[in-house]
Amino acid sequence: MTASAVSRPPRLLVLSGSARTGSFNRELVELAALKARNLGAETTSVDLRALALPVLDADLLQAQGMPAGALRLRDWMAQHDGVLLSSPEYNALPSPLFINAFDWLSLVQAEGEQPSGTAATAGKPVGLMAASPGALGGIRALPIVRTYLSTNFAMVVVPEQLALPLADQQLHAQRPDLERLAKPELDAVLDRLVASVVRQARWRISA
């Protein structure tokens, strides 16, 4: 343990499985990031669509090598201590954007001082959330995301999670208050989720 490691704030990577304009999941995870910053963390928001990753294709990998976007995602993972992820539900499954990006990440090999994709994620805490204008809030996909990240990437998925129903009524675009959800009980769940990730990220850098 070094003095600089103890003194620096935890760094969290902020990801949304939806990249559409006005995405509820992007809005929810950015609210979580704001709460994390209020707890002393630093955050970096990444647009998965901007990574421009093609659909995973072994022939393409053989012919062209690892896409630059997958290497960038690995680098960001390596530079951060934890993750906040909002994953929408598409037909009861996680979004193709999220799964495809992480499938590519799983194939990135170590090079020089840079770890492999799965080494960059191993042991790092991740907080899961979802948002939907429907009544279920995206809850059906979250167990799949939890298993996917813990099994394949050795990430520590914190017990707290939030599936936000009626997101069009809960989030900022409909309300002047930018720092909390409309329902206090759901905002309290988000507070606990974020605090858990920040706490575990601090433990990692002080170990």
Describe the 3D structure.
This protein has 207 residues and is an alpha/beta fold. The chain has helices at residues 3-7, 24-38, 58-64, 68-79, 96-107, 117-121, 142-153, 167-170, 184-206, and strands at 11-16, 42-46, 82-86, 89-90, 93-94, 125-131, 156-164. The chain has one domain: Rossmann fold (3-Layer(aba) Sandwich), CATH 3.40.50. 46% of the residues lie in helices and 17% in strands. It starts with a helix and ends with a helix. The model has no long low-confidence stretch (mean pLDDT 94).
The description of the largest β-sheet is: 5 strands, parallel
Low-confidence stretches: none
In terms of quaternary structure, what is this?
single chain
Q: For this structure, what is the CATH class?
A: Alpha Beta
CATH homologous superfamily title: Flavodoxin domain
Structural class of the secondary elements?
alpha/beta
Considering DSSP H and I runs of 4 or more, what fraction of the residues is helical? 40-55%
CATH architecture: 3-Layer(aba) Sandwich
CATH topology, anyone? Rossmann fold
Number of strands: 7
Q: Could you state the order of secondary-structure elements as H and E?
A: HEHEHHEEEHHEHEHH
Look at the structure and give the mean pLDDT.
Answer: 94
How much of the sequence is in beta strands?
15-25%
Instruction: Identify the overall geometry.
Output: globular
Whole-angstrom Rg: 17 Å
